[in-house]
Amino acid sequence: DNSSEISQSIMNGSCMDVIEIDGASNNSVDQVRSLREDCQYAPTQCSFKIYIIDEVHMLSTAAFNALLKTLEEPPEHVKFFFATTEAHKVLPTIVSRCQRFEFRPISDQVIADKLTEICKAEAIEVEATALMSIARLANGGMRDAQSILDQMISFCGAKIAESDVLDVYGLVSDERIVSLAKSLGSLDFAAIVEAVDGFGDEGRDLYRVLLDLENYVRTVLLDAIKHKGSSDLLGTPLRTESIMRMLDALHRGEASVQRGLSEKANFEVVLLKASEESRSRAIDSLIKQLAQGGPVDDVAPQKKKP
Fold first, then answer.
1. Cβ neighbours of residue 244 closer than 8 Å, sequence gap 6 or more
2. Are 57 and 89 in contact (CB under 8 A)?
3. Contact in structure between 35 and 44 (CB atoms under 8 Å)
4. Which of 111, 129, 191, 290 could form a disulfide with 135 if both were Cys (CB 3.0 to 4.6 A apart)?
C-alpha cells in the first residue's frame, strides 16, 4: 500500500531500515565491514532491514570477499538488493548466492507515454515526435529519459519541439534516416555522400545516426521476412539476404565510427560499403541459386502488371 506511513517514509528517503549505498564510492573493505556490523542491528520500523547496493560491480574483489560471509549466513532480519548494469563483473561466488532478476529495456512507446503524463502534470507543451526522440535516446531507461526531458525543459522552457531535441543532442529525424536508407538500397552513392556532408555541417552525432540507420534497416529486414523474402521499404525491392548483408556491414562499422580518427570519413566509408555489399553475393549462395534456375541478382523480381 503506497499510502501507508512506512511506504511514504521509504519513498521520501526517511526510513531508517532502507539503506541505499553507492557501490562506486563505497567499495573498500573497511566500508563493507562497517556495513556488516550495522546489519546486525534489528530494524526499527519495518519487518526487515533492506540494503540496496547500486553499481555493485564496482566493489573491489577484497570488498566482495568481505561481504561473502554475510551473504552465506545473513541475519534473518536483513535483505540485500544488488543492482548493476554489468552483471558479468560480479564475482561468481556472489552471484551464486543471489536470486537474479533481469530487467529488460523499456519500449520507446511506454517511455513516451510516461513522459506525456509528466508533461501534462507540469503543463509542458511538447510535440509527440519530440518525446519519441527522447525515448530513443534513453535506450530503454526510464530514468535516463526523465533526465533528458528535464534537460530539455531547462533549454527550452515550457514548449519543446522535435527540432529542439534533434539540435541539442545531434540527432537526425526519422524522415532523413529513411531517406538515407533508401539511398543505400538504390546504390545512390552521390546522395549518400551529400547526406553525410549535411550531417557533418550540422554537427550531428554520426555514431547515433548509424545506430538509428541500423534500427531502420532491421525493420526492413523483418518486413522482408514477413513478406516471404523481400521488402520494398528501401525504395528498391531487395531480398532478405541482401538486407542482411547491408545490416551486417553497418554493424561492423560501429567501432570505426565511434573510435576512429576521422568520424565523418569512416562513417561515409561504412555507408558506401554497406550499400555495395548489399549487392554482393556469397559464392555458395550464387551456385545454389544458379543450380535451381533462379535469378542471379539480389533485386526481388517485380510483379508483372496485368
1. 221
2. yes
3. no
4. 111
Taking the C-alpha atoms of residue 125 and residue 111, their distance in angstroms, rounded to an integer, is: 17
DSSP string, 91-142: -HHHHTTS---PPPPPPHHHHHHHHHHHHHHTT-EE-HHHHHHHHHHHTT-H
Burial, 301: exposed, middle or buried (Cβ in 10 Å; 0-12, 13-18, 19+)? exposed
What is the rounded distance in angstroms from the CA atom of residue 274 to the CA atom of residue 266? 12
**Closest by alpha carbon to 152, among 139, 140, 166, 172?**
166
User: Could you tell me the pTM of the whole model?
Assistant: 0.73
Whether pLDDT at 225 is above 60: yes
When pLDDT is averaged across residues 250-272 and rounded to a whole number, the result is: 93
Residue 35 parent element (H or E): helix 29-38
Task: Please name the amino acid found at residue 303.
Answer: K
Cell 526523465 belongs to residue? 146
Instruction: Name the CA radius of gyration of the chain, rounded.
Output: 26
Query: Which CA distances in Å does 223 have to 132, 176, 232, 302?
Result: 22, 20, 9, 17
